[in-house]
Design brief:
Oligomer: single chain
Organism: Xenophilus arseniciresistens
Helix content: 25-40%
Number of helices: 8
Function: O-methyltransferase that catalyzes the 2 O-methylation steps in the ubiquinone biosynthetic pathway.
CATH class: Alpha Beta
Shape: globular
CATH superfamily: Vaccinia Virus protein VP39
Strand order of the largest sheet: 3-2-1-4-5-8-6-7
Largest sheet: 8 strands, mixed
Protein name: Ubiquinone biosynthesis O-methyltransferase
Structural class: alpha/beta
Low-confidence stretches: none
CATH topology: Rossmann fold
Mean pLDDT: 88
Distance between the termini: 36 Å
Order of helices and strands: HHEHEHEHEHEHHEEE
EC number: 2.1.1.222, 2.1.1.64
Number of domains: 1
Strand content: 15-25%
Pathway: Cofactor biosynthesis; ubiquinone biosynthesis
């Protein structure tokens, strides 16, 4: 399968590959992901405890979430199309002695065709805003999970507030993320993501906003989905 046929933007893959060696540097551009990881992990566990579960982390990057899920007792497969980031994730798992996590360079769509209904849960965090066709990824996630299983997404809203805070503020003023990390046109409104989920046969269970104080670097969950937000869905049990 050629890169042109994949649901991936070569420029996006190149962008994250160039930064791959910095995934586990807590003072790097990826610090925000490390800072929010405990919060999103606790939110996932509050809805669907992961110990003993077979999970797939779609768009796993350097393995920040996949590694922490495995440390909670899950059997985790992390998938991505950024080769260098996957190698960093594999090396980190070896160095940290993390058990129960494996990584593969494969698209969500290809894995869904290979392993439909094989996972208890799916996570797809901070990834949908980086692909040409987010609805295709949502459908793949719905296909991967077993009936009754949970699928979790997180992304960024598309509005003036998100543009000001997540792009201008985070990338150009505060320098929290590299410039060009996000493209405004690729951001997803909650209503759009909800429609993608319904179209894929997933039932919306919960939506939470992710708030941030840049001065204290504190993050918390709220009802405000104006910028960053997370969505919990389930595949219905077979009737």
């Amino acid at each position: 399968m050629t890169a042109e046929k994949l649901n991936a933007d070569p420029a996006e893959l190149a962008k994250f590959s160039e930064l791959a060696h910095r995934w586990w540097d807590l003072e790097s551009e990826f610090r925000p992901l490390h800072d929010i990881n405990p919060l999103r992990l606790e939110w996932i566990e509050s809805l669907a405890p992961v110990s003993g579960q077979r999970l797939v982390d779609v768009g796993c990057g350097g393995g920040i979430l996949a590694d922490s899920l495995a440390r909670r007792g899950a059997q985790v497969l992390g998938i991505d199309l950024a080769s260098k980031a996957l190698k960093v994730a594999q090396v980190h798992a070896l160095e940290a002695g993390t058990k129960g996590v494996k990584y593969r360079e494969i698209s969500a769509e290809a894995l869904a065709a290979e392993m439909p209904g094989q996972f208890d849960g799916v996570t797809c965090m901070e990834m949908l805003e980086h692909v040409p066709d987010p609805a295709s990824v949502v459908r793949a996630c719905a296909t991967l999970v077993k009936p009754g299983g949970w699928v979790f997404f997180s992304t960024i809203n598309r509005n003036a507030k998100a543009f000001a805070l997540a792009i201008v503020g985070a990338e150009y003023v505060m320098g929290m993320l590299p410039r060009g990390t996000h493209e405004y046109a690729k951001l997803l409104r909650p209503s759009e993501l909800a429609a993608h989920c319904r179209g894929a046969g997933l039932e919306l269970q919960q939506m939470r906003g992710l708030q941030h104080n840049p001065l204290t670097r504190r993050y918390w969950l709220s009802e405000d989905t104006g910028v960053n937000y997370m969505v919990a869905t389930r595949r219905p049990l077979a009737s």
